[in-house]
Write a structure and sequence with these properties.
By secondary structure, the chain is mostly helical. The protein has two helices and no strands. It is 83% helix and 0% strand.
Length: 66
């Protein structure tokens, strides 16, 4: 087999496998994307609050003792 035949066979097998994949519906993609975005926002708010608390502690408690 020359390299061109190998490449062609590879892409043919990839195409066959892609036809067998069960692709999600638009509604499923929208739902899971929404879950990811909401989760990211919740963690961003949580980490922002933790950062503010730790910055307050550092500024008002730890630096005052020095």
């Amino acid at each position: 087999m020359n390299w061109w035949t190998k490449v062609r066979d590879f892409f043919e097998s990839v195409w066959k496998e892609l036809k067998r994949v069960s692709w999600p519906t638009r509604k499923e993609v929208y739902g899971t994307t929404l879950v990811v975005v909401v989760t990211i926002l919740i963690f961003a708010v949580y980490l922002g609050i933790v950062d503010l608390v730790l910055a307050f502690i550092q500024k008002n408690v730890l630096l005052r003792q020095a």
